[in-house]
Each structure stands twice: as structure tokens, then as C-alpha cells.
Amino acid sequence: MSNGYNGTSIGYNGMSNGYKGMSNGYNGKSIGYNGMSNGYKGMSNGYNCKSIGYKGMSNEYNGKSIGYNGMSNGYKGMSNGYDGKSNRYNGMSNGYNGMYNGYNGKSNGYNGESNGYKGMSNGYNGKSIVYNGMSNGYNGKSNGYNGKTNGYNDKTNGYNGKSIG
């Protein structure tokens, strides 16, 4: 709870951590944010959360140019399940900007080299930075992420970010 995403070298690292929960579409068996090649598996899409913005196929994260764009955006909107009030994914201060952007892979958060979220096939490469935050966390309303200050405090997936680096 004190660190949230450490991201020193791998960010969401964890062989058996990742996002857990069927309703969220995050399958955390040995996938989730593995930091090597897996990433969000989910039920059928990347983020399969009913009416969540990140849909894997349609809004796939290409890791090319936008991704964590914005100074204080974070996850926006209720339908997206991410409430970007003060929590945001970032390496420095950027957050998810909108539904159509996708994750930038080279200079911003999600990614290690150039992959970033690719829907169902690629996922997080995570070699260097990925979620490098000091006080970031999911503050979502629909997908069960409730991280006020740090880490995941998930009520729906039963994902507790205490042990995630």
C-alpha cells in the first residue's frame, strides 16, 4: 500500500500476481503484468470489463506514440472503470488519456521496450519501466479497482496490491 507500483526494473512483476478476476477480464494465473511477454489476458479481450474503454482488440495498445499522454489525466470516466482523479499510471506524471489512444511504449509508462498493451497477443513487455509510480493506483468504480493512494485495493477481483512491486 505504500509504494503502489514500484517499477524499478519491472513494474507489474509477478509470476502469479497480475490482475485476478473473471469479471474484469484479468487472468492472474501466471500472466497478468509479467514484465516479460504476457500481459493482460482476460476472458476474451485485453481489458474485458463489460463497458470498459480498454477492449483489447478495438482499443488495443500499440505502444507507438501516445499511451500515457497527459499531465494529470489518469483513467477518466465512470464507464471506463477508472477514476482518474489523482491516481494515474505513470512513469513521472502522465496518465491514461482517453479511450482511443493506447499505451505509448517507448517513453512512457506501460512497456519496457516497444510493445505495451497489444490486446490479446503481446501485452506488457516490461523490461525497464512500466508503472513507475510513487503514488499511483487504480481508483476505479466499475472494474473493482479501488486504489486511493498506492497499490491495488481491489474489491471485485480480490486483487490486493500489497505484494506487488
TrEMBL record:
UniProt lists compositionally biased (Polar residues) regions at: 154-165
Q: Where is this region: Disordered?
A: 145-165
Q: What is this protein called?
A: Uncharacterized protein
- Organism lineage: Eukaryota, Metazoa, Spiralia, Lophotrochozoa, Mollusca
